[in-house]
Every structure is written in structure tokens, then in C-alpha cells.
Specification:
Structural class: alpha+beta
Largest sheet: 6 strands, mixed
Distance between the termini: 8 Å
Strand order of the largest sheet: 2-3-6-7-5-4
Helix content: 10-25%
Order of helices and strands: EEEEEHEEEHEHEEHEE
Strand content: 25-35%
Radius of gyration: 20 Å
Amino acid sequence: MPYDVTAGWYPDTKINAPWEEYLDGNRDLVRLVDDTPDGGTLIAGSGVGRPVVPDHMPKKIGLRDAHPSWKLLDFEKSGVGWRITTAAKDLIERLEPGVHQFFPVEVFAYSYDPTTWQDIYGNYDPVADGTHVDRKIADQWFFVICNRLDTMNRELTVGLLDNGNYGPGLLKLGIGGKPLEQPPRLVLNQSAIGQTHIWCERCVGHTFFSDRLIEEIDAAGLTGLRRTFIEAV
């Protein structure tokens, strides 16, 4: 059975996640190999289930405004796909070898101590330009999902827009189709999923992981992933 997943989930919601500063490359120039519309959700950016052209992919980032209690996660949100650890990459590659894109990235922070991420003055926030020192704290990977599937069961799903995409939120606002008369329900087709472990759902716009992948992630103790169980028949 699949799970709807998001990266960058931290158990303590009061702790602010850092933001990424790109120290080289040009994130704004990273583009899809193929952005041809397919009738599904908007095809833009690197999180839609299609590979990207690597020419301008950043190779170094700085994590900024990190709370002193923040620790690096195995699955992080990023402006370029997701950002993951080598442990997460190796697990994904073992289940779906050669399917997805992984780009190495060096991670820096204003810090001498990765457990606190304090700068050289003991502050938690960046100090004035030219007075801080960046310290490398990790090697990670930008992870671009390269499966874009339509696995939705339209006979059982409740909340379909007139265009066939899943959009109960829009329907509640009176946009895109008939108003909902019963609670929304997303159901997927197991036969359409097959042996796929990671994919972006073309007509939902979310990322899904298989139950086997989730089991292995939990067994390995990998962090940062929030998941919601989704029906599949």
C-alpha cells in the first residue's frame, strides 16, 4: 500500500528549519529535460517526477538561520528536488537502481559545532557579511524523482475535478467541478503502481512511496519523512 510523503518533517514544530543559500551554480536555471504537458498537474520545477538538465545544478549550499537544536535530517525539502543523505540515497538506489537523479552537494553552515550550528560569536543567526566563517558539516545529495505516473482509481476516488485531477480543496471553493456531497477520498490502483517504489502522482501533484520502501526507511531509522497512508486496490 502506498504512502503520501513529504520531506523536511521535524518532530518539534517549534524549531525553525534553516533555509538554503546556493553558493555556486544557479538554481533558477535548472530546468526539466521535458516539460511537455501531459494533462496532469502543472509541470514546473524539479519536483514533478521528470529528470532535470544538470548544467546549472548547485554543488555547494549554506544552511542559514538554523535553530541551535536543529539536526540534519535524512530527507529534507529543497529548492532543487529533495536533499537527502547517502544512507537514504543508497536505500533508494537499491530498490530502484538507475531510475532517479542524484547530484552531490556539500553542505556548509555558520558553525564550528554541527550539534549547535552556532557561529564563531555564539550567535544563532548569521552575523554581518564578511565577519562569519562557513564550515562544511555534511555531504548530501539533491534527489530528483524521475517517475511520473497516473495511478488514481477514478471509480472510487471522491474529489475529482472536471479535468480528471484530484482537487477537493478547489471543489470546496466552488472551482473546477461540482461541489462535494461527501467527504473526499483518494484511492489508487495497485496494478498501475506495480513494482514502483517512488513516484510523483501526475493527477494529484504529490509524492508517493511504497509500503516496502517505508518499512525499510523505518528499519534504518532515517529521519525527516512525514507520511499519510493512502488506499490502493
